[in-house]
């Protein structure tokens, strides 16, 4: 049954090309297929099951710039040591948002991220490893605050579109 087929791609361009090819090859079945990106599918699931995820019915979608802006808003409360840059705070916020995004893509929430960072710290055998662990612990602190800020704004980011439906 074509309506039971889900086709996911990494890019909108690939989804569009695939849809066009399927429309040509199977014009009667193509409209019944769900074709789109992982993120579009995740957004669809988040909107459908928002109540189960503790979200508003139509949560705001925060892109990378929005995520950095959320962190800039709470910058004075962020416990930054390794990621402190007084000259250009947004520069390090990009790195932090990138780390959180990668964690979410790997289905690692704030609590698990902290556990992994603590394990890194416990297993650190030299100064470089200790610094890397301290940076991860710092990101864990920011991750908690970032998630609280996202909830306050009623939003989700692109990482949530992968992590939340998977959970």
Beta-strand content = 5-15%
The biggest beta sheet is recorded as: 2 strands, parallel
General shape: elongated
How far is the first residue's CA from the last residue's CA?
27 Å
Radius of gyration (CA) equals 19 Å
Number of helices: 7
Look at the structure and give the mean pLDDT: 93
The secondary-structure class comes to: mainly alpha
Helix-strand string: EHEHEHHHHEH
Q: What's the number of extended β-strand segments?
A: 4
Q: Are there runs of 5+ residues with pLDDT below 50, and where? A: none
What is the strand arrangement across the widest sheet? 1-2
Proportion of residues in helical segments? 55-70%
How would you describe the overall organization of this protein?
The chain is mainly α and 167 residues long. The protein is 60% helix and 8% strand. The protein is built from seven helices and four strands, in the order βαβαβααααβα. It has helices at residues 12-25, 38-48, 64-73, 89-105, 110-123, 127-153, 160-166; strands at residues 6-9, 34-37, 60-62, 155-157. The strands form two sheets. Strands 1-2 form a two-stranded parallel sheet. A two-stranded parallel ribbon has the order 3-4. The longest helix has 27 residues, at 127-153. The chain starts with 5 loop residues before the first strand and ends with a helix. The mean pLDDT is 93.
């Amino acid at each position: 049954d074509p309506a039971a087929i889900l086709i996911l791609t990494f890019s909108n361009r690939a989804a569009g090309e695939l849809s066009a090819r399927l429309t040509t090859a199977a014009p009667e079945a193509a409209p019944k297929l769900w074709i789109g990106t992982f993120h579009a599918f995740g957004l669809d699931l988040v909107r459908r099951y928002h109540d189960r995820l503790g979200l508003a019915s139509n949560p705001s979608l925060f892109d990378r710039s929005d995520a950095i802006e959320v962190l800039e808003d709470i910058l004075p409360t962020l416990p930054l040591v390794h990621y402190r840059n007084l000259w250009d705070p947004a520069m390090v916020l990009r790195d932090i948002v990138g780390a959180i995004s990668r964690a979410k893509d790997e289905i690692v929430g704030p609590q698990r991220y902290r556990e992994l960072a603590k394990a890194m710290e416990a297993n650190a055998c030299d100064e470089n490893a200790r610094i890397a662990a301290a940076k991860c612990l710092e990101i864990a602190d920011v991750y908690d605050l970032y998630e609280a800020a996202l909830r306050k704004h009623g939003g989700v980011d692109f990482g949530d579109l992968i992590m939340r439906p998977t959970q």
